[in-house]
């Protein structure tokens, strides 16, 4: 009997070790693929920054790729801090909800209760409107103001709102600005001091810094493709710069409800309407459990993206100091790798690289150029996506060059015959040309490929009614 137990224990131990080795090997393979994806993109000038990826709540990949600034002399490390653009608004949104949980404010409180020196319109804006970007406030006058005091004076001179509070959505930074000022009025602390004491420290963030200056060390400097560096500071303050490790700690503090409870989290995660943003960007919850959390941010040539899928224990963090507008494309490929699915390499945009030349071509010339580029530069430029010819086709449509648009879009349907979107685009081109029969034919085929295409359904109804 003891021999049987010993054998059983040995089998179980062997099985556990075997599965552990298999899992570790699979994660190593994924890390190698992810690293290859990023390094190839870096060689093409398409990524310079830091990456952190967690799977099953463990960091499986972390890298700093490229250089700290435009000079290209100092290599990045994961100790460097990056501005994260609009993602930094999460700190004031969480701060507001923290004060609400402490009973120091209500979301229905008017802004005038805390900032009485603002015009009469402030009594009609509630704190919830600031969190949902439904205040009606005009945006910050970036070309005029230089600091907080000047922005507050600009608001005092504002005679009326852009719309009635709560009636529309308009994302802008004056909503964020007033959230930060309300936190200051209630706590008696600067927003920087409040963030450090009540948000960064409880989250375990030791390297993050609020409003870094030129004298601070280990700050990645953003620059454009002409190697011109951005200013580090911004006209209104309160912007948190983070390392990849601290960014991950913040993401976990949100998803694990370390700072605020699930009910408060839901109020700033879910937006006013579809396709809009809340204080935490966007995401979903199931009861008191968070399912997803996604947020992107841009600040001059800094860009950042956070995508968390909580049931998988998965977080993808991307930060760059050389904006290429491709972080979502990276995320798509990284998610595919993590899911053991085929993925696309990140390549240069034909339109971005040759836009001026393409503007001078007709449809036939575009297709000739496209085919030549595809044959000779396939490893460097993106020909795997339907978006390139689709965008060129729409550019012809905007100029009422219908025959050129149709020629290009027909080619796109031949290259991507399983895409409902490309047939929808061709249908639109025929419709604008006045060829209703071919428009109807392509809209119907688009709907066959994509049954959720509500736009195609509407156009089919219009076209069938007109026949």
From TrEMBL:
This is Beta-lactamase. TPR repeats lie at residues 420-453. It comes from the Bacteria. Keywords: Repeat, Signal, TPR repeat. SUPFAM superfamilies: beta-lactamase/transpeptidase-like (SSF56601), TPR-like (SSF48452). Residues 51-327 form the Beta-lactamase-related domain. PROSITE patterns: TPR (PS50005). Pfam families: Beta-lactamase, TPR_2. Transmembrane segments: none annotated.
């Amino acid at each position: 009997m003891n021999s049987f137990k010993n054998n059983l224990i040995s089998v179980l131990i062997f099985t556990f070790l075997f599965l552990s080795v298999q899992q570790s090997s699979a994660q190593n393979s994924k890390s190698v693929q992810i690293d290859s994806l990023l390094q190839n993109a870096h060689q093409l000038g398409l990524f310079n920054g830091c990456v952190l990826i967690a799977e099953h709540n463990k960091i499986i990949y972390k890298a700093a790729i490229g250089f700290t600034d435009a000079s290209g002399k100092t290599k990045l490390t994961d100790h460097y801090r990056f501005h994260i653009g609009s993602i930094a608004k999460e700190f004031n949104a969480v701060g507001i909800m923290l004060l609400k949980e402490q009973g120091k404010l209500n979301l229905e409180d008017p802004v005038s209760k805390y900032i009485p020196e603002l015009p009469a319109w402030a009594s009609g804006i509630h704190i919830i409107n600031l969190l949902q970007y439904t205040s009606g406030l005009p945006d910050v006058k970036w070309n005029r103001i230089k600091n907080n005091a000047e922005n507050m004076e600009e608001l005092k001179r504002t005679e009326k709102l852009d719309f009635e509070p709560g009636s529309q959505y308009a994302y802008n930074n004056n909503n964020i600005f007033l959230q930060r000022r309300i936190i200051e009025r209630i706590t008696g602390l600067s927003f920087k001091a409040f963030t450090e004491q009540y948000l960064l420290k409880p989250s375990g963030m030791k390297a993050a810094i609020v409003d870094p200056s030129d004298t601070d060390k280990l700050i990645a400097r953003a620059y454009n493709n002409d190697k011109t560096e951005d200013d580090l500071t911004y006209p209104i303050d309160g912007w948190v710069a983070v390392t990849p490790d601290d960014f991950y700690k913040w993401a976990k503090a949100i998803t694990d409800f370390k700072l605020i409870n699930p009910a408060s989290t839901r109020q700033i995660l879910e937006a006013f309407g579809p396709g809009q943003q809340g204080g935490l960007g966007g995401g979903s919850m199931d009861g008191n459990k968070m399912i997803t959390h996604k947020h992107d941010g841009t600040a001059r040539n800094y860009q950042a993206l956070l995508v968390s899928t909580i049931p998988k224990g998965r977080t993808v963090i991307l930060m760059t100091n050389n904006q290429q507008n491709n972080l979502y494309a990276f995320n798509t490929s990284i998610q595919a790798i993590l899911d053991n699915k085929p993925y696309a390499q990140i390549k240069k945009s034909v339109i971005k690289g040759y836009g001026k030349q393409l503007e001078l071509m007709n449809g036939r010339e575009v297709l000739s150029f496209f085919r030549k580029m595809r044959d000779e530069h396939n490893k460097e430029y993106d020909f795997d996506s339907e978006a390139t010819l689709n965008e060129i086709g729409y550019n012809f449509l905007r100029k009422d060059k219908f025959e050129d648009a149709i020629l290009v879009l027909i080619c796109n349907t031949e290259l991507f015959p399983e895409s409902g979107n490309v047939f929808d685009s061709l249908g639109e081109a025929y419709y604008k040309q006045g060829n209703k029969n071919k428009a109807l034919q392509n809209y119907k085929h688009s709907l066959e490929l994509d049954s959720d295409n509500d736009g195609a359904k509407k156009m089919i109804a219009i076209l069938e009614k007109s026949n």
